[in-house]
Amino acid sequence: xxxxxxxxxxxxxxxxxxxxxxxxxxxxxxxxxxxxxxxxxxxxxxxxxxxxxxxxxxxxxxxxxxxxxxxxxxxxxxxxxxxxxxxxxxxxxxxxxxxxxxxxxxxxxxxxxxxxxxxxxxxxxxxxxxxxxxxxxxxxxxxxxxxxxx
Length: 150
What we know:
Layout: H1 2-7, H2 11-28, H3 41-54, H4 58-67, H5 76-92, H6 96-109, H7 111-115, H8 118-130, H9 133-146
């Protein structure tokens, strides 16, 4: 629910529901991860990246990303998704090098997940076109991976 409320800009409701998930994760313990749902401390913390990005608080999203250890998630799909979400926060700040670096990492983590990332499919052409010489080659490689003509 927190993610859904963040997507429509209802910050108070998003944060209230995140707080509920946070309490549940805390009650289960720091190292608990549900084997199928992947619900646990790291997942709840990682979703705050998405919530803050959806609420257009890129700085807070980046700060949250610095605190989250994605290696505690047993799912490559989830690690790739949350790495892309961190890239999205950097892209919102026009930080092309961080964006392309994180998108490349997301692709290495789970190529299947990366291939279907709507954010990657929209950001990579922007990076090829306007990201500058420093990121162009990496962005072009990602465009090729995604099957995009740029």
